[in-house]
Amino acid sequence: MAQGYIQPSHENECLEDVGDEYFEGLLTRSFFQEVEQKHVNRGHCYKMHDLIHDLAQSIAKSEVIILTGDAKIIPKRIHHMSLFRPHQLPQDVIRKPIRTLFMEYYGDDHYKTKRFISSLKYSRATKVRSNYRTVLASLVKLSHLRYLDLSYGYFESLPNAITTLNNVQTLKLVSCYNLKEWPRNMEKLINLRHLEIDKCDRLSYMPRGLGESTKLQTLPLFRVGSDSGRRRHRRMRIGGLNELKFLNDLRGKLIIEGLVHARSSEAEGAIFEGKQYLECLRLYWGWGGITEATKKSEEEEAVSVMESLQPHPNLKEFFIQEYGGVRFPNWMMIDGLDLLLPNLVRIEMWFCSRIRVLPPFSQLPSLQYLQLWTLPAAEYMKDHSLSPKPFFPSLKTLKIYNMPNLKEWGMKNVVVKQAPPYSYLEDLQLELIRMELCLSLIRVTSSLKSLEIADVEDLISLPQGLRHLSTLQTLSIMACKNLASLPDSIGCLTSLTELKIHLCLRLTSLPKGMRSLRNLRTLEIYSCLYLSERCRKGTGKDWPQISHIPNIIIH
Questions:
Q1: How far apart, in Å, are the Cα atoms of 500 and each of 155, 440, 443, 450, 471?
Q2: Cα Dmax for the chain
Q3: Mean per-residue pLDDT of the chain
Q4: Vertex 189 angle, CA 183 and 190, to 5°
């Protein structure tokens, strides 16, 4: 895109969409091949086949050069250059029309590096690793720059003059750990489309004027500056939450940190109303600055700010962490949440310690993953019982952790009334919750593949109704200190392949139904003193129940 190779077929067509079409075309023709990743959540990875790579090199050899050693002869038509060692700054390059420069090292001779970079007046894409402001300042002479990557630099600030590069479309500042100050006049970067900031840990605010870069599509992180920071650093021109209001082309994921510092006065109106391309939104409040004296006002301020953060209906993933309000905003609690967020697939809530009532999550038609982690004050989920809507119609994963006061789960009384069944629920994890809720959720699920129960203090035995979980493959029981027995109906879990029992000190034996678990491949017993003795190979009283299991691990 920086080189001008991507050409839209009509005026309103997005360059990135056209580029995606180009890439997909090359992928289908096997020019690129997808590589399987060992680590999840790291995006897609592609490689070029060796033969295609050799062909590309032979065609482009007069225009592309990668210097890994000293080079005495540089082709006349060279346009794209990568340097990997600091002593390689070839003098005869200075007069050549270099359009791409990647410097993969930290240059020691910053004067020489500065002079070299200043000479590349035709460069459209530049990647530089430098710790010297003089080297960074030399970039302002590259008026044709479209792509600028300064990742892994140790600088604390960027030169103000860098905002004169008004053709820049992509600015990458990944892992600039010391960066703490933005350049002034960021609004001059009117063509900025991608601002990639990640792991810039000392950066505590976003610049005023960023909201005028209305072409911005990539902004993975937005940090709300504190009032004290604004008073201490007036010259920094700290921007507020309202900088986001008109950035309606934002795509992918957006993390907003430091919302505890946000003020409703700068979050007026619907900030996310027009952001139809945003797929994932993470809202992190943080703990800073709240005292007993300011607690009440901060709680109300949090609710007011949250009212302005209603996502677009196209949102797919929603995360809330350390929210300080005593209640969720009105738009989250209404009967009709399914119409506001019909495409939401994943919700996570962490450490929302003051919330008592949960939104009616059960209405969301596309919700597949729900995780609630440490909401100790929550008592029930909002139930619009007069509304005849399906109950969690698409939910596949439910994780509830540290919610000891949760009594009702979408029904008026979860102990008396059974909740409607979950048609697609496959993974259920319950920890530090009430026994009645735990047993109720187990009873109404019929499609589970994985079940984990942990730290349910009053749990004495699993229900005989466990027999209906014929699809269950993994069962984990952790730290249930009062659990004294497992039901004989455990033998009905014919699909079970793995059973883990950890820290269940009162569990003294295994039921005879264990013999019926012919698909069980792994039994793991950890810190269960009595059970460990009874399951000792050959001599334990329960050994006949488990001798058929191939992999038995006893710690």
A1: 50, 22, 20, 11, 17
A2: 86
A3: 88
A4: 155
Residue with tokens 């609690």: 333
- For residue 110, give the DSSP letter: H
CB 299 within 8 A of CB 328: no
- Strand 346-350 and strand 278-284: the pairing is unpaired
Decide: 463 and 441 in contact? Cβ < 8 Å: no
Q: Do residues 522 and 499 make contact, with C-beta atoms less than 8 angstroms apart?
A: yes
Show Cβ contacts of residue 89 under 8 Å, excluding neighbours closer than 6 positions. Answer: 83, 107, 112, 113, 116
What are the pLDDT digits (tens) for 310-335? 999 999 999 999 999 999 999 999 98
The length of the chain, given as a count of residues: 555
Surface-to-core class of residue 332, CB atoms within 10 Å of its CB (0-12 exposed, 13-18 middle, 19+ buried):
buried
With tokens 């119609």, the residue in question is 393
Please state, in angstroms and as integers, the Cα–Cα distance from residue 167 to each residue in 10, 213, 274, following that order: 21, 12, 26
Q: How far is CA 165 from the centre of its chain?
A: 31
Burial of 511 (0-12, 13-18, 19+ CB in 10 A): middle
Tokens of 115: 């002079």
CA distance 467 to 536: 27
Q: Each residue of 91-150: pLDDT tens digit?
A: 677 777 889 989 876 566 677 778 888 888 889 999 988 777 778 888 998 999 999 999
| Residue 56 binned pLDDT confidence (cut-offs 50, 70, 90) | confident
Dist. CA 410–CA 432, nearest whole Å:
19
Burial class (CB in 10 A: 0-12, 13-18, 19+), 232: exposed
Using one digit for the tens of pLDDT, what is the confidence trace for 440-484? Answer: 888 878 899 999 999 999 999 988 778 889 999 999 999 999 999
